[in-house]
Automatic annotation (TrEMBL):
<protein>
    <submittedName>
        <fullName>Phosphoribosyl transferase</fullName>
    </submittedName>
</protein>
<dbReference type="Pfam" id="PF00156">
    <property type="entry name" value="Pribosyltran"/>
</dbReference>
<dbReference type="InterPro" id="IPR029057">
    <property type="entry name" value="PRTase-like"/>
</dbReference>
<feature type="domain" description="Phosphoribosyltransferase">
    <location>
        <begin position="8"/>
        <end position="170"/>
    </location>
</feature>
<keyword id="KW-0808">Transferase</keyword>
<dbReference type="InterPro" id="IPR000836">
    <property type="entry name" value="PRTase_dom"/>
</dbReference>
<dbReference type="GO" id="GO:0016740">
    <property type="term" value="F:transferase activity"/>
</dbReference>
Length: 220
């Protein structure tokens, strides 16, 4: 089995998440960029608000692929203290990397969300959505950052995941909904027939459409 595209994947997950439909304490957060088209379909079907959770990994100086922490929407920063200590990374170095990534995070926040305020996450049921999990590095940072807001419940929803990655997150969050766990896994994109890179413009358009839908519903 493969998904036709991110839209179909989101529609599939929405059926699996039917228990969360029409609940005022629930919202869907898409991880940009690829998670947003999936999240849009889920939010539309469940009749819940849609927003984004932007995460930027903090790479070790001179080893950018190795994450020493992450920053996320709403001003959250988390650090992997074991890596920081073992590599003797100074506060100055951490601050320099953080400042650079914060600029990119703010650029994306402004580009995607515009003037809309950051959503209320405390004591809410949050459905965190991406288009797939391979190593799970971005989702791992997202979950750690999200917990800082003390949501009532954290749910991960992904169309496809490596089996060991899914099992890891099953122990970290309240619930994980995953469509496929193929083995061998290879890559996320392999399990979609159509898997183009999601553009900034597409993310903005989907968020605008979701906001307009929510406004119409609020006005009756």
């Amino acid at each position: 089995m493969r998904f036709k595209d991110r839209t179909q994947a989101g529609q599939f997950l929405a059926k699996e998440l039917a228990a969360y439909a029409n609940r005022p304490d629930t919202l869907v957060l898409g991880i940009p960029r690829g998670g947003v088209p999936v999240a849009f379909e889920i939010a539309k079907t469940l009749n819940t608000p849609l927003d984004i959770f932007v995460v930027r990994k903090l790479g070790v100086p001179d080893q950018r692929e190795l994450a020493m922490g992450a920053i996320a929407s709403g001003g959250v920063r988390v650090l992997n203290e074991d890596i920081v200590r073992s590599l003797h990374i100074s506060e100055v170095e951490i601050d320099q990397v953080t400042e650079k990534e914060q600029q990119e995070l703010e650029r994306r926040e402004h580009l995607y969300r515009g003037d809309r305020p950051f959503p209320q996450l405390h004591e809410q049921t949050v459905i965190l959505v991406d288009d797939g999990l391979a190593t799970g590095a971005t989702m791992r940072a997202s979950v750690v950052a999200l917990q800082k807001y003390k949501p009532a419940k954290t749910v991960i929803a992904v169309p496809v995941s490596a089996l060991e990655t899914r099992d890891e997150f099953a122990a970290k969050v309240d619930e994980i909904i995953c469509g496929l766990t193929p083995s061998p896994f290879y890559s996320v994109g392999l399990w979609y027939e159509d898997f183009p890179q999601t553009t900034d413009e597409e993310v903005r358009n989907l968020l605008d459409r979701a906001a307009n839908r929510e406004l119409l519903m609020a006005n009756g």
